[in-house]
Amino acid sequence: MLFNSFPFLIFFPIVVLVYYAIPHRFRYLWLLVTSYYFYMSWYPKWAILLLFSTVITWLSGLILERIKCQDWEESKKTFWKKWCVFFSFGANLAMLGVFKYTNFVLENLNRLLAVCRMEALDVSFGLALPVGISFYVFQALSYTMDVYRDDIYAEKNFLKYALFVSFFPQLVAGPIERSKNLLRQIDTKKRLTRDRFLEGMLLMLWGYFLKLVIADRIALFVDPVYEQDTVFTGWYLIVASVLFAFQIYCDFAGYSTIAVGAAKVMGFELMENFDCPYFSRSVAEFWRRWHISLTSWFRDYLYIPLGGSRKGKGKKYRNIMIVFLVSGLWHGANWTYVIWGGLNGVFQVLGELTKRFRRKLGAVFGARPDTTGHKLLEAGITFALVDFAWIFFRAESLPSAVRILNSIFHARNIWILFDGSLYEAGLDQKNFWILLLSLAILFFADALKHRGVRLSKSLLRQEWWVLYAVFFVGVFSILVFGIWGSSYSAGSFIYFQF
Amino acid sequence: MRKVRKRIQTAVCLVVCLAVAWLAFLRVTALVQRKDSLEKYQPFYEQKEDFDVLLIGTSHMINGVFPMELWADYGIVSYNFGGHDNQPATTYWVLQNALQYTNPKMVVLDVFGAASQSKASDDLSYLHLSTDSMPFSEVKVKMLQDILPEYGNITDFLFDFSLYHNRWNELEERDFFPNITREKGAESRINVGEPQVSARVGMQERFEDESLGKEYIEKIVALCQERGIEILLVNLPFPASVEKQRNANSVYPIAEKYGVSYVNYLYQDGIVNYDTDVYDSDAHLNPSGARKVTRDLGRILSEEYHMPDHRQDEKYAGWWEDYEAYLEFKAEKLKEQNLKEYLMMLSDDDYDCYLYLPRGLSWDETGIFQKLLGNIAEINEADLTGTDAVYLSLKRSDRASFQSGKKEIPREILQRLEKETDDILTAVVVDSKNGTIVDETGFDEKKRRDPA
Questions:
Q1: Catalytic positions of A, please?
Q2: A435-459 pLDDT tens trace
Q3: What is the structure's pLDDT at A496?
Q4: What is the Cβ-side half-sphere exposure of residue A278, based on CA atoms within 13 angstroms?
Q5: Nearest CA of chain B to the CA of A485: how many Å?
Q6: Domain B34-325 sits in which CATH superfamily?
C-alpha cells in the first residue's frame, strides 16, 4: 500500500480515528495489527520475514539482559554478549543477504567462472526483494546494539517491540528509527491536540507535494532519457542528471516527510531524515544532511566500532571508505551502487586530504569563506560532485553509466534547450514550467528551514483562514498538478527497493 | 459559555470551509473532465419528458440515424445512445442506465458486433464516452464490474478525476463552455468515402459460433421484453465485407427466437448509394446516407410500430427550438466543407440549391461530382456534359426536382451565382421551407471553398 494510493487514503483516517477512540492500553495493539496489515498488503508472506527479524532481535535483547544480570566475570559476560550480538546480526544479515544479494553474488560468480572457462551456475532463483527489508532489518539490529551497549533496557513485551519494528509510517522506507527514541514513545499516553494534528497534516501535505508534483513529474523526463541514453544524448543527459538530483531528493524526502507527518498525527515524533542537503558546502556535510537516519546508523554501528577517527588518519579514511562502500551495497545489489558509494567516500577522503591546500589556495585568491558568493561556490561544487555520483546511482548498469558520462562530456547539442526539442522527451513545456515553479517553492522552503524557520510551525501561529488557504491551495495543487492516477504508471517510491 | 460559543464558531468555520473545498473540488473535477460524453448526453439527462425511442448500438448508430430528422419528418422523440466501438455488452449496460431516466416505448438496437468476443472496446476512451456523464448509480457500478475486470481500472470510471486531472495543460474554450450536441446524441461524420467492394453472401451464411456479442444482444432483447418495450433489431447499411455480412446474418435466429423484427439493411437495396453515402470505405454512413436511413427507419417506426407524432404536442414544444438549433448547426457544418463534402451535404430536404458551373463538369475526371449532383436530385446527364456553362436548380422541397437553364433561376440568385466566374462551381443554398439564404459560395480548381 503506497502512501500515494487510494487504499492508504482510506486506511490512514480509519487507523487514526480508531486509534484515538480506543483506550490507551489497546492502542499499541491496534497499531501493530494495522502495521502488519499495511505491510502484508504488498505480499502477505513477506510478513514472515518481518516477524523473523523481530523475534530474533527481541530474543537477543532478552538474552543480553539475562547475561548482564548473571553473576559472571566481566570477560565472560562480554564474550557471551558478543556472541549474542553476533548471532542476531548474523541471522538478520543472512536473511537480508539471501533475499537481496543472492542473484548479485551468483552473477558475479558466473562472470568469474566464465573467465576461468568453467560452467556457469543457475541464477534463476526468482527471489523477489521484500519491500523495505533493508530498513526494518537495520532498525531491528539497532535495538540489539542499543541493549548491548546498555543504552536501553530490553523490552519485555513482545508485541510492543514488534510494533517498534513494524510501525507502518516508517516501516518500508524509514526514517530508520532508534529504539531509544521510538520504543519509549509507545508507552507514552497521547492526546489529540490541534497543533500536533495540523502540523502532522501539513507535513503530510508537503510530503505529497514533493513526491507527486516534483519527483514524479521529473521522473517523466528522467526515465525515458536514461532508458534511451543512445537516443537522448548530450544535453538531454545533463538536464536529466541535474533533475535526477532533485527527483531522488523529493522522492525520498517526500516519503520521509509523509511518514513523519503521519506519525505526528498519532502523537509520535520520528527523527528528521533530511535537512536541506543541497545547501551543503562539502560532501561530508551533505551526508550529515542526507538520509540522516541511515548515515547516523552507519556512524554509530559501523564507523565507530571500526575505530572511527580515533586511530589515525589512515584508518579514518579506510573507515570512511568502508562505510560508504557498504552504504552503496545497502542501497542496491549492483556495482553501480557500490561505485556511487565509493565515489562519495572518495570525495570525502579527498576533501580531508586537500583541506589545507584548499585553504592556502583560498588565501592566495583572497577568498572570504563567510561571504555569500563563497558559500554559493562551495554549495555549487558540492552539488556537482554529488550529482556526478548520482549518475551511477541512476544508471541501469555500469556500461550504461560509462556511456552516459561519455555522452555528457562530449555534449554538443546545447540547442535543444532553445529549439523546443527538450520538451519532446517526456515532459512538455507547460509541465516544465510547473516543475520550475515547484522547485522554486522547494528552494524557498528549504532556504527558510536553513535559516531556522520551520514553516509548519510558523503557519500554526497564523490566522485560521491563512492555514485554511494553505491547505486549500496545497490539496488542489497536488490533486491537479500531481502525477497520479491511470495516465501515469504509479511510480513507486524509489527507496522502496532498498 | 464562552468555550461553548468558541466551539460552535470553530465547528461552523470548519463546515463552511469543507463545503467551499468540496464545491471547488466538484468544479475542478467538472472542468478537467473530457467533454465528449457530457456534450453527447447532457440533453438526454436534462429532458424531463420521456423519450419514445432509444437508438442504441455502435458508431454505426451514432452516424447512421439522426433523431432531429426523425422529429422533423415524423414527430418521433428519440435519442441516439450509440457509442463508438460499443460492444453489445457495453450497449446492454448503456440501455440499463438509460432506462433509469426514461420510459421508452421502443428500442432500436444496432446489432453490429454480434460476433464480438469482448465486453468493451479495446480503446477505453470509447468506453469513457458512454460512462463519463453517467450519474453514479448501482447500475453504473454493476456495469463496470461486469465489463471492466479484463480491460481497465474501475476507479478511472467511477472517479474519473483520477484520470483527467492531468488535463489541466490541455484545457480549451470547450472545457469552459462545452459544445453540447444539437443532434440529440447523433454525430454527423462528414466525408465522401470510397466504398470497398465485396461479394454479397446469402442470408443463410452465418457466423455460427457462440459469442459474447450474441449473448448480450439476447439479453437486450430479453430486457426490453421484460419491461414491455418494443424492440427492433437493425443492421445499418455499410459496405460490408463477407465476414461482416455473415456476422449480421447470425442475428436472424435471435430475432426468430424472441419473435422480434430484424431489418438487415445490407439486403435493402435502393435505400443508400455507397458511392455517395459513406464516410469511410467499410463502416460508417455520412450525413447523406444517414438521412436516407433515418427517413426509412422513421417510416417503419411510424407505420409499423405506431410511434406517436409529437410535433403538435405542447409538452415537446421545446423540440422545435432544438430543431432550429440543429438547422443552424447543419448550416455551420455546410459552410466548413470542401466541394465534394459540400455537395454531399446538399442531399438534404431542408435545402434547395442553385448551382452554376461556368465550364460544365469537364473537370470531373472521376465522375464523383456527377454522382453527388445526382444524389441531390435526379439529373439529366445530357445537361452536364460538354464545356458549356451549366445552371442547375435543385429543389428538394419538391421532392428532388431538377431543372436546368438560366431562366429557371430567380434573378436575385442568378446575380449571386454569376458573381465569380473563375470558380468551377458557385452555389446558393436556400432554406427549402422559408426561402432564406443559408449559404452562398464558390469553389476553385483545388475544389476548395473561396475564402470569405
A1: 331
A2: 999 999 999 999 999 988 888 888 8
A3: 44
A4: 21
A5: 5
A6: SGNH hydrolase (3.40.50.1110)
Looking at the structure, tell me whether residues A179 and A297 fall in a common domain: no
Judge if A81 and A230 occupy the same domain.
no
Using a CB–CB cutoff of 8 Å, tell me whether B387 touches chain A.
no
Give B20's contacts in chain A (Cβ within 8 Å): 472
Task: Tell me, yes or no, whether A214 lies in a domain.
Answer: yes
Residues 6+ apart with CB under 8 A from A135: A170, A171, A172, A173, A174, A176, A498
* CB-defined contacts A:B, below 8 A: 43
Q: What is the pLDDT of residues A395-427, one digit of tens each?
A: 988 999 999 999 999 988 989 889 988 998 888
Supply the range of the domain harboring residue A100: 19-189
Structural domain total, chain A = 2
By C-alpha distance, the chain B residue nearest A473 is B21
Which chain B residues contact residue A483 at CB under 8 A?
A: 166
Residue B11 in contact with partner chain A when CB distance is under 8 A: no
Q: Is the domain of A257 the same as that of A127?
A: no
> What's the pTM?
0.81
Q: Is the peptide bond before A175 cis (omega within 30 degrees of 0)?
A: yes
The pLDDT value recorded for residue B392 is 82
Cβ–Cβ of B169/A475 closer than 8 Å? Answer: no
User: Which residues in chain B touch residue A486, judged by CB atoms under 8 angstroms apart?
Assistant: 152-153, 155-156, 162-163
Same domain for A209 and A86, yes or no, is no
For chain B, residues with pLDDT lower than 50 are 399, 451-452
Query: What proportion of chain B, given as a percentage, has pLDDT over 70?
Result: 93
For residue A104, give the H/E element and its range.
helix A74-115
Residue B355 host element (H or E): strand B351-357
Same domain, A174 and A298: no
Phi, psi angles (nearest 5°) of residue B440: -140, 130
| Residues B16-51 as b or e (16 or more Cβ within 10 Å = b) | ebeeeeeeeeeebbeebbbbbbbbbbbbbeebeeeb
Please say which residue of A163, A189, A215 terminates a domain: A189
C-alpha to C-alpha distance for A137 and A127, rounded to whole angstroms: 18
Last residue within a domain, chosen from A173, A189, A205 = A189
Same domain, A51 and A91: yes
**Phi, psi angle pair for B401, to nearest 5°:** -80, 150
- Consecutive H or E run containing B401: strand B401-404
Q: Residue A11 falls within a domain, yes or no?
A: no
- Asked whether this complex has an ipTM greater than 0.85, the answer is no
CA B222 to chain CA mean position, Å: 26
Nearest residue, CB atoms, A476 vs list B24, B152, B153: B24
**A443 Cα to chain B: minimum distance (Å):** 24
A485 with B163: Cβ contact below 8 A: yes
Domain ranges of chain B: 1-32, 34-325, 338-443
pLDDT single digits (tens) B67-114:
999 999 999 999 999 999 999 999 999 999 999 999 999 999 999 999
Q: Is B169 on the interface with A (CB under 8 A)?
A: yes
- Per-residue pLDDT of B185-240, as tens digits, reads 999 999 999 998 888 898 888 888 889 999 999 999 999 999 999 999 999 999 99
d(CA A56, CA A449): 40
Do A408 and A315 lie in a common domain? yes
Is A479 among the domain residues? yes
Q: Which tens digits make up the pLDDT trace of A347-371?
A: 999 998 888 888 888 888 887 878 8
CA distance A441 to chain B (A): 20
B30-41 per-position pLDDT tens digit: 999 989 999 999
Residue A126 lies in a domain: yes
A475 touches chain B (CB under 8 A): yes
- Same domain, residue pair A237 and A114: no
CB contact under 8 A, A476 and B166: no
- Give contacts of A6 with chain B, Cβ < 8 Å: 155, 162
